[in-house]
Automatic annotation (TrEMBL), chain A:
Belongs to the RANBP9/10 family. This is RAN binding protein 9. Pfam families: CTLH, LisH, SPRY. SMART domains: CRA, CTLH, LisH, SPRY. Residues 285-328 form the CTLH domain.
Automatic annotation (TrEMBL), chain B:
This is Armadillo repeat-containing protein 8. InterPro entries: ARM-like, ARM-type_fold, Armadillo, ARMC8/Vid28. GO terms for cellular component: cytoplasm; GID complex; nucleus. Its main location: cytoplasm. The keyword Nucleotidyltransferase does not apply.
Amino acid sequence: MSGQSSGCGFLMSVVVHGDSALNEQENELNQQLRRLYPAVNELETPLPRSWSPKDKFSYIGLSQNNLRVHYKGHGKTPKDAASVRATHPIPAACGVYYFEVKIISKGRDGYMGIGLSAQGVNMNRLPGWDKHSYGYHGDDGHSFCSSGTGQPYGPTFTTGDVIGCCVNLINNTCFYTKNGHSLVYVCLCPQPNLYPTVGLQTPGEVVDANFGQHPFVFDIEDYMREWRTKIQAQIDRFPIGDREGEWQSMIQKMVASYLVHHSYCATAEAFAKSTDQAVHEELASIKNRQKIQKLVLSGRMGEAIETTQQLYPSLLESNPNLLFMLKEGLPALVQKDLHFLFCCKTFLNLIHEHDPVLDQINLVFFLCPGCSPGFDGSCCNGVMSSKAHPSPHSHKPCPPGPALLAAAAELSSLNGSHSLQQPNASTDVDMEVDHFTNGVTESSSNGFFNGTSKHGAQTEDCDADMEVESAQSKRQLCGGSQAAIERMIHFGRELQSMSEHLRRECGKNSVNKKMLKDAFSLLAYSDPWTSPVGYQLDSIQREPVCSTLNSAILETHNLPKQPPLAQAVGQAAQCLSIMAHSGSGSCAFAAVDDYLH
Amino acid sequence: TKCVHLSPVSLSEVTATSRHYVDRLFDPDPQKVLQGVIDMKNAVIGNNKQKANLIVLGAVPRLLYLLQQGSSSSELRAECAVVLGSLAMGTENNIKSLVDCHIIPALLQGLLCPDLIFIEACLRCLRTVFISPVTPVQLLYTDPTVIPHLMSLLCRSQRTQEYITQIFSHCCKTPEHQTVLFNHGAIQNIAPLLISPSYKVRMQALKCFSVLAYENTQVSMTLVNVLVDEELLSQVFVRMMQRDQPIDMQLTAAKCLTYMCRAGAIRTDDSCIVLKTLPCLVRMCSKERLLEERVEGAETLAYLMEPDVELQRIASVTDHLVAMLADYFKYPSSVSAITDIKRLDHDLKHAHELRQAAFKLYASLGSNDEDIRKKITETENMMDRIVSGLSESSVKVRLAAVRCLHSLSRSVQQLRTSFHDHAVWKPLMKLLQNAPDEVLVMASSTLCNLLLEFSPSKEPILESGVIELLCSLTQSDSPALRVNGIWALMNMAFQADQKVKGEIVRALGTEQLFRLLSDPDSNVLMKTLGLLRNLLSTRPHIDQVMSSHGKQIMQAVTLILEGEHSIEVKEQTLCILANIADGNTAKELIMTNDDILQKIKYYMAHSNVKLQLAATFCISNLIWNEEDGSQERQDKLRELGFVDILHKLTQASDPNLCDRSDTATHTSLPLSFSFSLHKTDAHKHAHCVVGY
């Protein structure tokens, strides 16, 4: 599940990059829509942004980016009525959807209808007259619900009025607003995929739509707040198991298994003890995993690979061994992907900086500035740390003692002429501190990582921090070392051939291909860190590797590759997406993230 | 028998243990006293019987003594205050006993102590005592140093903030209280609490502002300019009305803005009223809300939009408010009666409140707009509900029902249709027989409208012997009742037959009529003149009334024309003269009165067009061609110089006046103008009444 969701995030971010060409106003609209309907996945269900030039009757004219509608028929009888639908239906994941229409001119008779209709409803009609169609009409103020005869509903409306239509996909109602004042509810038939619709009937009628381009007259966000509160109260009050203690012990099991999964050995031990539970994995095994994860997270890929190969010799076999896999019950693809993923990450680190220590294993590994000292065993974590971030202090090197300065000098001689004058040398010192004096910084960081949980804001702060640092340090590829660059390119070629090998063997893998392409494209930039693909160099990007590796190790031990807690979270998220597909609007206000504080 | 036998035993047992607690308060060892108080504290928590016992056994004076004693340890003093606070949490009788023991000054005195824990305990107890309806709020204001001291304690802790603001909001009942609190800086001291991290503090601070701002222009005007954390107070209130806030907070914030608006500090077209407060209050009326909230919501909304037709129009279409209110009459529901006794009890308790709130809101909604009135009367069973509301036992409901009826009675169409169909006059008349003054005022105002000429209810009301009742109203001490009495008579006399007019004059008595002509209330005077004018219409009636009361009427007219009165009063008086001039024999009363003629001449040259017009009417009637003796009258008036004035008036700028004087100079127009005068008059009366 976590792999799936991270893949999704990956895709999304690519889309965002592509957006840079859009103009300012469209960006603003996108932002506004994302703010109003955060649960909508626009890749699957795009939101209405304008009227459809295709889905309209011929008497309808569109202008001003397909937002203005005017009537161009004869307008003699109701047979001359004409409607237009929006480009897309209203996604259920909106929960509450709203749009407004301003009457620019009431034309001859002011027979305007604002409302909703399903795909395929006759457009030679006003909204509301036919089945699966609803409308509020200006001439008489009546509401039409799939019927040629309207019910007295609200006041009439005319030139200058702003009429809104709010669809509540949670209780299947809709209400209209006039100049910011809500009128009463009308019930809708449970009917997915309704389109915002407007209909006109006499010459001169002109209306403008607002799908979020401008602030709404009606305070829709306040209405949404009410429903968010309602749904959340419903969730909070949801009855849990009747039998006493059952609920609690289940929660405790989930917590314990989570702690074990991510190798928080001490915490897991203490928790299991106090809640009287058994731990299903040997302590030594937990500690091994912990060690590997620590290495991956601190960017020491070489050591990580080495240790993995030592502890789990068969796991990283580059040539897939079918027998082995059948024996171990591991799907081939996962394993190969794992290694590939690993290598790609190594490559990214190569680009990052030069680290001579790892020369021994015939690959050059580089450390990145974002990873800090003090990834001590007890605070190293998997998924959790993906959002846990070092405090501002953790970027600063410890006061260098004489031994460290010596180490720094040694490094600089190894790296040739560049190093000491560059600020990134100090990062190397940092890393050395980590490497040689592991434990010195333990006390300061221990607990911090465990305690810091992932607030989005915090993540952003730290990202910003890192960017600042990168700008200051004028980083160069491989720390500027020519030899290192060559080794990196060599490694890159190896990767390329590995990818081709994988493709021959297992068919095309678009994710792998894309990953490699993105990684290589970093080389095209003089400053890869600030490039559009620079996100790959973020230490956060190591998290999926870490957790995939961890899961793979666990699977070799016949342990679940995911902790039940993560599975529950994943199930909840999946459930929400199924709700969105099946037209249940409450999913809009039940984002799993809201509950993961 | 066993039971009877048992209970006294157990009671005496309880009393014995209670006595033990009290005895321990007198122990010479202070440590033991402290332990005794702590034990007592644990014993009384949640035990009303124990509380009552301890009070009866005299624990309160001893606790107060220990609390006030300088030699007591601060721990002991605080524990005493806690026990007293616990005792206060019991029944109303407990509170009465505590107040009788002078607990309030003792605790207020305690607030001077520097120890915060003790202060908080005192405040908690004071809060409990003051929020009880049996405690006279005045006790907070007897010592003038108390309020400033409480203000200074607001910064001490969240608890002091919560308790003090709660005390203030319960003890601010009159404009004087508002002023005292305002003058001691309540606004500056409490405003920052609106953004306190504690919900309780925010809520109590908000309640404080709602009671401070109610009908208080000074407070309201100050409030609009207050900034809380660089944000305008009104915006803070708007945020508190957001739909995800607790209902109590939304409602109270809406009240604050309503009161500020009604006090003139916020315009009725301000978006925070139109787009925020009004919709919030409409939401409070919805079926989803608790009954209490719906009552408060409806009452506040009624108050908010009472003076503003635009708000009434918006409210009338918002969320189908008119239909939503119909639900207020469905309590207790037939379902609740059978299924759930508790629910039935709850419903019954709120049924009256709900009905009166709905009537009030309907009254407010329908006070100006004809379409809204129509919508209201077309609501299911509306007229029946009003009719039965008029005879409910609860005065509050009766008053609200008659207010609603009055509001709807401003509609000519409703008077002609639904009012008549439902014979609303019957319960209304019954209501008038015996009711408190405030109900009488509303009922008689409504009656005024029902007596309008075009109202089909006028006839049956007349037959029901209403004249005596109205005449008795004119003798009331309340100016509002006098106005309504005479107003109703005036409407009744309009185009009435001789019999009715005679009956009015006889029942009222000339003495009372002339007393009303010198009434200090100008409204009464205006309506009395109106009555006189209506009595003096159509020629035979004019002559008849003038022959019997001519002398007094001429005297009264002279007095008014000479006196210091408004233009409207003088105009009305000149119109009476014009009517007299239209009589056959009555004319002579003017023609032989040179004083009056000089006065008419004076007003024809007056700077006010209305008065000129009325005076000219009068002359025009006197010189009418086709009547006997017109030649002599014309000669006399020519002698007196009226013709010159009329000629001047034909050049006047006012077309109405020009036309009238033209008619007078040529004396060729038929009689119709006298009639048309009455017509104008009628229109004016109807207009006045409807607008009332």
